Amino acid sequence: MIRAKIVGILTKDDVSLFELKGLNLEANLFMLVLNEASKFALNDEIGLGFKSSDVVLAKNRLDTSSLENELKCVIEAINFGEVLSVVSLKCDQISFEAIISNHALKALNLSKNDSVFAYIKSTSIHISTQK
After folding, report:
1. What would be one Pfam family of this protein (predicted)?
2. Which fold has domain 2-130?
3. Which terminus of the chain has a smaller tally of CB atoms within 10 A, N or C?
4. Is the Cβ–Cβ distance between 17 and 122 less than 8 Å?
């Protein structure tokens, strides 16, 4: 789980953009939420989650993209399936997984110990716990 502190909140028409400073990883993240801003304040510490299927992998940094959350990771393991593969990633103090098609795995030519960039849409991150 990613632990983060809220460092910015921008709200308009019940849509909020939270800027988050990672506490157990060296990254700032962004999260878009509906009707949540009133429950939180600046400097609140929260736990963040996301689905493994919402992680996009790239061998090279995406310079122009709407994906705001970028994490530089190392592949710890790959569990090959019939159609999908589970890629286990390590980024600073956190570990998580990405589920990608075998077709994409082959096209990216990914293997254990490779460095990759993991991207997560701001709409895919959710609050899993609050301290």
Report:
1. TOBE
2. OB fold (Dihydrolipoamide Acetyltransferase, E2P) (2.40.50)
3. C
4. yes
Question: How does pLDDT run across 76-121, given as a tens digit for each residue?
Answer: 999 999 999 999 999 999 999 999 999 999 999 999 999 999 999 9
Instruction: Give yes or no for a contact between 17 and 10, defined as CB atoms under 8 angstroms apart.
Output: yes
Domain-wise residue ranges, the chain: 2-130
- Indicate left, alpha or beta for 68 from its phi (over 0: left) and psi (-120 to 50: alpha): alpha
Q: What 3-state class would DSSP assign to 97?
A: strand
Q: How far is CA 10 from the centre of its chain?
A: 20
Tell me, rounded to whole angstroms, the distance of Cα 113 from its chain centroid: 19
What is the pairing mode between strands 94-101 and 84-91? antiparallel
